[in-house]
Amino acid sequence: MNSSPNAVEVHGISKRYGHQLAVDNLSFEVRRGEIFSMLGPNGAGKTTTIRMILDIIKPDSGTIEVLGGRFTEATKQRIGYLPEERGLYKGVRLVELLTYLGTLKGMSTADAARRASQLLDEVGLGDNKKSKVSELSRGMSQKVQFVATIIHDPDLIIIDEPFAGLDPVNTELLKSMIYKLKAQGKTIVMSIHEMHQVEEMADRLLMINHGQRVLYGSVDEVRQQYAENAVVVSGQGEWQKLPGVRSVKSDEAGRSVTLMLDEHTTPDDIMQALAVSPNYKVRSFALAVPSLNDIFIRVAGGNGSSNHREAPEAASR
What we know:
By secondary structure, this protein is of the alpha/beta class. 33% of the residues lie in helices and 27% in strands. The chain has helices at residues 46-53, 73-76, 94-104, 109-122, 138-150, 168-183, 195-201, 219-225, 267-276, 292-301, 312-315; strands at residues 6-17, 20-31, 35-39, 61-66, 79-82, 156-160, 187-191, 204-209, 212-218, 230-236, 245-250, 257-261, 281-287. The two termini are 26 Å apart.
């Protein structure tokens, strides 16, 4: 067993298609047992990066290690991949299809059939085991694709837009299965556009723009990096009269206010002022940090390669 703490190590990879530089000197690591999210606008280089990790295409320069070494046929058997462009054999019954796909990953026919039946039960398709793929709804087909991805019990699972086409109930079902896989020590890499899902699920994230790394670190670290000099408070008091507060903005529901501070005032200064003043009653106090959606729009909407800020752990590498 390899002792490296990382399931994937990417060092300075670049890939060019003709005159277009799709990936530009990109480096990052995916730790074993974490949920790692890859973000970026369309055309940013995410899919090219995933294909290089999977050895579908080769980088022009740089190196990639997967599950402790260079990519081999043995490595391939330890990976489950759910691409964005999905496809299943339409005229085949589910349990037969999944059993066949399991044998392609080195499973015995009996083990693959047993695992297929178990996973179909788990995703709520136990009554459809003998149905053909052509008879399934889009959401049902999506769940079958996920089952096909994990049927061989892979160590590394790479999934591209896993919740596309799913209703809220089935989205929660797939999320619970992903959490279960993580609890088993599996490593999950998700390429995803739903920022609220990233905030909820991901341990760490990578955002690519114009083929370059523009955000990298834990969700909290990234949000802290983009925090404004402001605090969010709820309670009672004349907030505008606090020294150092340059403007006050109420939320839509009127339950809290955001105090925008001048450049000479810190959140600690405001906290101390509130603590010693009898004129304010504070119920909650927190730093004002933007959502990942706000950060994504800010970074992807501007020149991501020149004005980005990375989380401290990324900047130190």
